[in-house]
Amino acid sequence: MWPSVFAPKKNKFDGTSRYELIAVFEKSSPDVAKLMAAVKAAAEGENIDLKRANPIKNCKADDDRRERDGLATRFDNLDNPEDYVFLMAWSKNTKPGVVDENVNDVIDPNALKDGYHVRLNVNAFSWNKSGRSGISFGLNHVMIVREDERLSSGGTTTPRDPKKVWSVPTGGLDDDVMGGFE
């Protein structure tokens, strides 16, 4: 996960600033099926080719596409990158809420780094701009679950009632590390 959730960063494609993160999932994760269902629902009735416009991408992609997308070295530290997929979630105008596992606001930008395990609250949506169309994920909230080894070198608000956004599994957070998106 490569976050830019505390301050927006400039998007190289259209020059606008936005909050974003890249989340990595094992292909076998049940969360990937849930995300795909959200993608299909967002595409329904929109005449969007999901083979071309699917926002869930393989980490082991051709080098030209990885270079174009600015991801050339992002997944080099993954063991067996072919076993993983990623998505980019973003918000143009609204700073995502960032909380810890106890649903306390996190305001320190150093508290969230690539490689950390998080729960996400995202929404899939369709878009059509300048004759192009696709599906993207909106980034609403991030819950930091636990630190882990970084994958590369190199003030927030939360919902009024964050307990309604996050559902903590009864067995503990590690049981559903990447879940929690809605």
Describe what you observe in this structure.
It is a single chain. 13% of the residues lie in helices and 33% in strands. It has helices at residues 30-43, 50-53, 63-68, and strands at 2-10, 17-26, 57-58, 84-91, 97-99, 117-129, 132-146. The two termini are 18 Å apart. It has one domain (2-176): Nucleic acid-binding proteins (OB fold (Dihydrolipoamide Acetyltransferase, E2P)). Mean pLDDT is 75; it is low at 152-182. The protein is α/β, with parallel strands linked by helices and 182 residues long. The chain is globular and about 40 Å long. The chain contains three helices and seven strands, in the order ββααβαββββ. Strands 1, 2, 3, 4, 5, 6 and 7 form a seven-stranded mixed β-sheet that branches.
Estimated share of beta-strand residues:
25-35%
What is the H/E string? EEHHEHEEEE
* CATH topology tier name: OB fold (Dihydrolipoamide Acetyltransferase, E2P)
* The top level CATH class name: Mainly Beta
Number of strands: 7
Helix fraction? 10-25%
Rounded to the nearest angstrom, the radius of gyration is 16 Å
| Discrete helix count | 3
Summed over residues and divided by their number, the pLDDT gives a mean of 75
User: What would the principal axes of the Cα set say about the shape?
Assistant: globular
End-to-end Cα distance, whole Å, is: 18 Å
Major sheet characteristics: 7 strands, mixed
Q: Domains counted in the coordinates: how many?
A: 1
CATH architecture: Beta Barrel
CATH superfamily: Nucleic acid-binding proteins
